[in-house]
Amino acid sequence: MSIFDINAVPVNFGKTHPGTAGAPLPTPVEPQVVALGKESGVTSPPIAAKGPQQVDKNQEFWVDIEVGALGNPVTNLKVVSFELTYTNTAIVDYLSYEVGPFLTGAIATVIPDDPNGKVSASVYRTTGSNSGYGVVLRLKFRTSAQAAAGQTVSFAFAQVLANREDGSVQPLSPIGQVVTIQPGSGIRADDFTPTEFELVQNYPNPFNPGTVIEYRLPQASRVTLQVYNLAGVKVASLRDGMESAGRHSVVWDGRDEMGRPVAAGVYMCRLVAGTYDKTIRMLLLR
User: What does each of the 286 residues of the chain score in pLDDT, given as a tens digit?
Assistant: First the structure.
């Protein structure tokens, strides 16, 4: 079974049962893997592998799979499947994955083939779809302790299939990533304790429907991380309690504390940790 066979499941779900007695069965949609890059002469939205440009040896790092762009969004995306290949398998290993925030409530199937430098994956919504752009999947890798400065690992898409909610194909233009091993101690960058408090600008921004908010704590602190609208009314409480020193992140899915999607617009995210108090502006598109 190919990873692309999964696309037919969410696309055709519920389409094989008649709505009324005696009504004809609808014809199931049969998604097809298509040529990448162009749709009616217009450049298709991208699917990009985005990771760090440089890493140390023996370091864990993430490669984010992002679809669409601010000026070139995807429309009514329901499912995307792909094969991501990577070179120099002797110095890099696949570790794990996380579902990204873009496809609301998405499910992922990930099949690693580390010896051959390939990860096959499918990310899909069982109901509904999303338009816009954002991260659909995050893949974690680790470089070897034997990696040498100057060695590179190239990530590229071998095949891609994406379908909209109506079953039509959403063409995507693939963009790869090259990661270079840099000189260093071999200690993971994430192991270093931050030297100061910091609330990092959310990404993506603008976003729809989810965004990642990162913050850094130089010492264990009581943390509150809350989202407000422009009227100063609290929309969501993302963190409230003691947290250890280090780098932290949380995904806001564009919903209030009752689980209801909020309206498009500008929202403020405020971090209070000890005497540190900072607010960033976030733009939600619908």
Answer: 688 988 888 877 655 444 444 444 444 333 333 333 333 344 789 999 988 878 888 888 889 999 988 778 899 999 999 999 999 999 999 999 999 888 888 999 999 999 999 999 999 999 999 998 888 999 999 999 888 888 899 999 999 999 999 999 999 999 887 877 776 544 444 445 678 899 988 888 888 878 888 888 989 899 999 999 999 999 999 999 888 888 788 888 888 988 888 999 999 999 999 999 999 999 998 7
Q: Give the other-Cβ count within 10 Å of 41's Cβ.
A: 5
Q: Are strands 234-243 and 246-252 parallel, antiparallel or unpaired?
A: unpaired
Compute, in degrees rounded to 10, the torsion defined by CA atoms 236, 242, 247, 253.
-20
Nearest to 91 by CA among 71, 117, 112, 119: 117
Task: Please give the structure tokens belonging to residue 135.
Answer: 């991260």
Question: In which element (H, E) is residue 39 found?
Answer: strand 38-39
Rounded to an integer, what distance in angstroms lies between the CA atom of residue 188 and that of residue 246?
13
Whether this prediction's pTM lies above 0.90 is answered by no
Q: Is the dihedral of CA 177, 182, 185, 191 positive or negative?
A: negative
What residues does 213 pair with on adjacent strands?
250
